[in-house]
Prior knowledge:
With 311 residues, the chain is an alpha+beta fold. The chain folds into two domains: 6-145, Urate Oxidase, CATH 3.10.270; 153-311, Urate Oxidase. It is 22% helix and 34% strand. It has helices at residues 43-47, 57-71, 76-90, 208-225, 231-245; strands at 15-23, 26-40, 94-104, 106-110, 123-130, 135-142, 147-160, 185-195, 249-258, 261-263, 280-283, 289-296. Strands 4, 5, 6, 7, 8, 9 and 12 form a seven-stranded antiparallel beta sheet that branches. A five-stranded antiparallel beta sheet has the order 3-2-1-11-10. Helix 4 (208-225) packs antiparallel against helix 5. The termini are far apart. It binds uric acid (URC). Uric acid binds at residues 166, 177, 230-232, 258, 289. Its EC number is 1.7.3.3.
Amino acid sequence: xxxxxxxxxxxxxxxxxxxxxxxxxxxxxxxxxxxxxxxxxxxxxxxxxxxxxxxxxxxxxxxxxxxxxxxxxxxxxxxxxxxxxxxxxxxxxxxxxxxxxxxxxxxxxxxxxxxxxxxxxxxxxxxxxxxxxxxxxxxxxxxxxxxxxxxxxxxxxxxxxxxxxxxxxxxxxxxxxxxxxxxxxxxxxxxxxxxxxxxxxxxxxxxxxxxxxxxxxxxxxxxxxxxxxxxxxxxxxxxxxxxxxxxxxxxxxxxxxxxxxxxxxxxxxxxxxxxxxxxxxxxxxxxxxxxxxxxxxxxxxxxxxxxxxxx
Length: 311
Ligand SMILES: O=c1[nH]c(=O)c2[nH]c(=O)[nH]c2[nH]1
């Protein structure tokens, strides 16, 4: 035979596992991207196609989710060690397991004192904003008469690990989605807002830095504090809160992908996976629902383009 097999490895890459742990009303989140690569006595599957030594990549994926539920995720390292040992120690042909983990870290969203439901706590215990700064955007247009200032942000990723439901929707012959009374709500906010300042003489220029910081704060707090029956409702609350709190803003538009987190079915492994006990979720990246809408001050003109994601 003129060829021989060299180094080889296989496994399921990029298992996006999210584990919520509930401690009363305080939730903890671990959000990992886990890639499994196994190697060992695997010549035959390459030479002849015999799968006798192959632990399916699908099984390695299931193991990641089942282990998250069974053992929790203490740290990326501890979780990786647990998995690596398992594959090698329980499966004879597998001699080496390499587990790679990326961890996405989340901060808690600070609450507003004004919201009585959360008085006493500094943070909403189930609301998170992903670490890493969002990108701030601005577009200024001047036609010789009026200045129009659009400010915005993109890449602001937020998550509520409870207080989100989705039910009561239209059901037709193609509907398979189950109604959900306790789901994760997560989105990556793109938002553009229009100031009513036009540069007219004698009208005070807004403090752009303060306006941005406050607008973002109000949007985050509305996200955290809204008991959500749909992402559409949450979006509207975020816009309404920003406009009601910031007199300089007349219009705000959002583009918000629904970053789906699917509860993993662990029944085949004899495990329950209920939100109430702290569940394990698959964070799916596509396809995703895309929810977009404008919120206006009553009487204001709608001027922000519908497709403003590349402003
Ligand atoms: O908040 C939601 N809004 C929807 O319109 C929708 N559609 C869907 O399948 N899931 C969701 N969630």
